[in-house]
Amino acid sequence: MTKSVAIIIPCFNCSTTLARAINSIINQSVHVDEIVVVDDCSSDSEKIEGICNLYDSVNYIKNKKNLGLAGSRNIGIWNVNSDIVAFLDADDQYHKNKVEMQLRYLHKENVVSTDVKNIGTKSLADINVKLNDNPSIKIFKSPYQNLFFNRLVGSSLMAYTSTLKVVNGYDSDLRSVEDFDLWIRLLNGGTKVISIKSPLYLYYDTEGSLSKNSIAIWDNIVVVIKKFISYRPLHLGWPIEQFIWMVLLSKELTRAEALNNKDLKNQLLLDIPKLISNKGVAILLKNLAKFKLFKILSLFTFKVGL
Known about the structure:
Blueprint: E1 5-11, H1 18-26, E2 34-39, H2 45-52, E3 58-62, H3 68-77, E4 84-87, E5 93-94, H4 98-105, E6 110-119, E7 137-140, E8 158-160, H5 161-166, H6 178-188, E9 192-204, H7 214-229, H8 238-258, H9 262-275, H10 279-290, H11 293-304
Parallel strand pairs: 1-2, 1-4, 2-3, 6-9
Antiparallel strand pairs: 4-8, 5-9, 7-9
């Protein structure tokens, strides 16, 4: 039985790139039944609506107030009629085979992601470039596989609409790392994630995007991890909780050194005693930062590309 597919495009001040995104869906190797553009109170709403009106398959929805990326995706989830839903940010594109490839692996008990190709702002991706017809896959069954290093591309998600509704969609209180949160909640609930190791999602590296706000990202990671720790069926003990925070803080301190981000480093140092209840461990982490251990680690991780 053929399943219907909808693509949700959250949109904020995106009139200059929206048509490019929509066309990459129109030109998919398989038919897409619905395209839903959710306008998050953009300043260029008239232009966005005008672009949407050029396509018979596009449904335009304008939010009554600004909801952010997570909230806008949720509006799309609860307004599609299709069995299956996927997502595309308005400044990005799909490779022509993305939908077809993901449908091969999608089942009721799993969701599917893909690898990403980063495109410079002054470049234009080739959505028709030849890719491996039989790429390798990686299967995620536990949240711990993605807890310390997020290896999944959030915007590349494809899932049964019902699967996302069961977990109440995205956490609309999060203004970043909403994808990371969703992966963790899906895996916690027993839904597997199949990651296709092929760059089927084409991401345009936009200057000033929210993904570059390191402190906001860290603050939201803390919220997500606190939710994970409080997930009742896990019954995590104090040592495991402290280990999780120690690893995450060490990783973020290393990243702050690699980026030479002093503001993020200072914020992390302030957060150590708030998240590490053992005073001895908290002092140890601060001293390791003081004596440049994370600076040394950053040189290694930068060199090997971690």
